[in-house]
Design brief:
mainly alpha, 12 helices
């Protein structure tokens, strides 16, 4: 009696099914040793492609994008898979304040002064200085909404304070801010498509490039965040890291744009600077607004 494939029912003529590719099932496949072998095989395969991709991402700016856009896609991880794995590492890493502002920096006026950790001990001048801060671009329309939310909570619990609300917000915002990093990718891709319109590239190609560049930026921020957390790091070293990060990012981006789009060196530097400005604007306006609203809504 001819054996058939357990997956698709096709009659087997060898070790593997010629229809679906599944290996011939045997009694040995039921044992724990086989399961452990599959686990280590999958782990080794993932590590191989992942570390190869990370090495190329860090040491060869733009090469992953060039390979993917050229149709050579077996050697490295897909752009979205690499981005998601790096995003997972970023999620577990120390938070970066540029992507996760404290509550008092997200709101303006008296609400910011009341949310200060030492609000009860602040002088009148200090309270006035904090209250004069207008907050973020979204603050004029989000601050009244938050005030209504706080008032509703205080109606149920008169002992509830603005600082209690700020603590709840900050516990919620850290993880949300990291999960929403991907919001930068489609906006940066759209901006690149407009700046590099003469390249006649598809939007999806700019999206792939943005995935790789944002993955690099997250790795860079992970490294900087860990370095700043070290107790042996002096203030001088911390200042040097803070100043060196944008310079290193600009050099990396310039090399990447030069390699991907075959730009002249000064064009690559110019586009890299525009990309960094775009990242800053996206982070400051739409990203912070969406992150703030979601953190409040989901806490």
């Amino acid at each position: 009696m001819r054996e058939t494939c357990r997956q698709c029912g096709t009659e087997l003529a060898g070790v593997y099914c010629h229809s679906c590719g599944q290996k011939r099932f045997s009694d040995a496949d039921r044992r724990l040793a086989h399961l452990l072998g599959q686990f280590f095989e999958a782990l080794t395969s993932l590590d191989s492609r992942f570390w190869r991709s990370v090495r190329a991402l860090l040491t060869q700016p733009g090469w992953l994008s060039v390979e993917h856009l050229s149709g050579r896609r077996q050697t490295f991880m897909s752009p979205i898979a690499l981005f998601l794995l790096v995003n997972l590492l970023f999620f577990l890493a120390p938070p970066m304040t540029d992507f996760d502002l404290p509550f008092i920096d997200q709101v303006g006026g008296e609400l910011a002064a009341m949310a200060h950790p030492n609000a009860a001990h602040l002088s009148a001048e200090a309270k006035a200085r904090i209250a004069s801060n207008s907050g973020q671009a979204h603050s004029p329309w989000t601050t009244p909404w938050v005030e209504r939310r706080i008032a509703a909570l205080q109606a149920h619990d008169p002992a509830f304070t603005v600082r209690d609300y700020a603590d709840r917000y900050e516990a919620s915002s850290t993880n949300i801010s990291k999960l929403l990093i991907i919001l930068h990718v489609p906006l940066l891709a759209a901006a690149m498509a407009m700046v590099l319109y003469r390249q006649r590239r598809y939007y999806a190609e700019h999206f792939v490039v943005s995935l790789h560049l944002m993955a690099f930026m997250m790795v860079l921020m992970i490294a900087v965040g860990l370095a700043l957390k070290l107790e042996i790091t002096t203030r001088y070293v911390q200042t040097s890291i803070g100043l060196g990060m944008p310079i290193l990012a600009c050099i990396y981006l310039s090399r990447a744009f030069w390699r991907i789009f075959a730009l002249r060196w000064w064009e690559a530097v110019f586009v890299a600077l525009l990309w960094m400005i775009g990242l800053l604007l996206i982070n400051t306006v739409p990203y912070r607004a969406i992150q703030f609203v979601l953190a409040n809504w989901l806490m």
